[in-house]
Amino acid sequence: MLSYLQGELHLPLTKAANTLTNFAGTASLTPLIGAFIADSFAGRFWTITAASFIYQIGMISLTASAVLPTLRPPPCKENHMCQVANSSQLAILYVSLLLTAIGSGGIRPCVVSFGADQFDETDPKQKTRTWKFFNWYYFGMGVSILVAVTVIVYIQDNIGWGWGLGIPTIAMGLSIITFILGYPLYRNMDPVGSPFTRLVQVIVAASKKRKVPMVSDPNLLYENEELDAGISATGRLLHSKQFSFLDKAAIVTNEDNLKSPNLWKLNTVHRVEELKSIIRMGPIWAAGILLITAYAQQGTFSLKQAKTMNRHLTASFQIPAGSMTVFTIVSMLSTITLYDCLLIRIARRFTGLDRGITFIQRMGIGFVISIVATLVAGFVEIKRKKAAITYGLVDKPDSIIPISAFWLVPQYGLHGVAEAFMSIGHLEFFYDQAPESMRSTATALFWTAISVGNYLSTFLVSVVHKYTAKPNGTNWLDDNLNKGKLENFYWLITILQIINLVYYLICAKFYKMKPIEFRKKEEEGENGVELAQKV
């Protein structure tokens, strides 16, 4: 898309980069809306279906803008004078991207949780498969991205943008048909009402009873299994000592009707603990933002670096700059495979955990590797600029510097390894620690972290571009990278990530897992005996 915005619509680098990060940010923010719709009344299947059709319309519109000459500016002239896309042409682009962003809002938070719903958590064997599902879900997504950045990018560069965008559009249409045809096979969870309403009810009830004395024994707090049946099918949340001021929402007074309580005045312990779980997840959620900010540079400035370097594999074939992310995807896929097939088995011997290591530890490893990735990126940029100086190409930004683009492989590869650890660990964390009735919402938080990370990238790029400008018109993120100071931008992100790692370690140390009582049923003669296991 960066190549499309610059090469076809002739947008400046910073505007093109910010357009993409803003689009990525919006596409990762809309999942909050999709999750709300799915968890409240529509259910995950119908939310995915409706959102997929919206996404399809956006793809058709985007493909049309690449095919119809009137929807894009004319080609650049021989003297490199280019006409930037006008307001109406940009409007078509923005509407197309907006539709796909809205469609993503219904697909992203629901697909992974809908897939995990197909396993029964009350069955220990199936619960283990749930964690394998996260690895292989991400693996499948990685394979599709690999096809996109190789086959599709090659088509875009060598055949045309009509086919380059048309093929994904056709593929999306086929996927919608396939998904709908599978409806009879799915295990569907019924929506149980707005999770946000329940959270607000707890806050309001606790506020109204703020002057009521706290009970001496937590067992005296209000419980109603019948009322909570729809939102605690796999297990009931138990009382925790954190955020005890919220417990007042579950204190029973003489005014309360225990059989049919007013939930704006009295809530169960389970509902109070739902809110506590979401609050506890907040600091860990925030820690994932900067990793996305660092990762976002691969689609913008790292790609720009690749465009200035020798990408030839043979005398007649060179890797498209947009395909350099293949090294990120390959390293991510390799890491996931190695992790699932080997590392987990080794780790089990030391930890005794089915998943090898906790998702908290998995995320921490990802943070460390991401720091190394941006550090390496800075040193590679210094080497690239020295080569530009050596060959006298500083003032020729469109010239290819005789230095291999494979120098970029370490930074691309390290980002892939970091994502395999951090992103999947983050996804596991949200699904596991969220209340069961809010799992679409929790998965949306994963995408929201991606959203904020992309917006933060836009903010950093804009601030750095503005405050590093020199009187001669150059700045750190100059369109001519040979005159800019891109390595300083990478150093800045590295420093921010180190600070973020310290913050994460503090959050991880004080984080408390949600207290839950899992229920499972076993057949004993003709009667089902309900067993409970506290975790």
CATH superfamily of the largest domain: MFS general substrate transporter like domains
Judged by helices, strands and strand pairing, the structural class is mainly alpha
Tally of separate helices = 16
Task: Briefly note the CATH topology name of the largest domain.
Answer: Growth Hormone, Chain: A
Strand order of the largest sheet: 1-4-5
In total, how many beta strands? 5
Can I get a quick summary?
The chain contains 16 helices and five strands.
Key features of this structure:
single chain; mainly alpha; 3-stranded antiparallel sheet; two-stranded parallel sheet; 16 helices; 62% helix; disordered C terminus
Indicate the topology.
Blueprint: H1 2-7, H2 13-29, H3 31-42, H4 44-67, H5 87-116, H6 124-158, H7 161-181, H8 195-208, E1 235-237, H9 269-287, H10 289-296, H11 301-307, E2 309-310, H12 326-351, H13 359-390, E3 401-404, H14 409-433, H15 439-467, H16 486-510, E4 516-524, E5 527-534
Keywords: Membrane, Transmembrane, Transmembrane helix
GO molecular function, one term: transmembrane transporter activity
Family: Belongs to the major facilitator superfamily. Proton-dependent oligopeptide transporter (POT/PTR) (TC 2.A.17) family.
Question: How would you describe this protein?
Answer:
- Belongs to the major facilitator superfamily. Proton-dependent oligopeptide transporter (POT/PTR) (TC 2.A.17) family.
- The chain crosses the membrane at residues 20-38, 45-71, 91-115, 136-155, 161-186, 317-339, 359-380, 445-469, 489-511.
- It is a multi-pass membrane protein.
- Keywords: Membrane, Transmembrane, Transmembrane helix.
- With 535 residues, the chain is mainly α.
- Helices cover 62% and strands 5% of the residues.
- It is globular, with a radius of gyration of 26 Å.
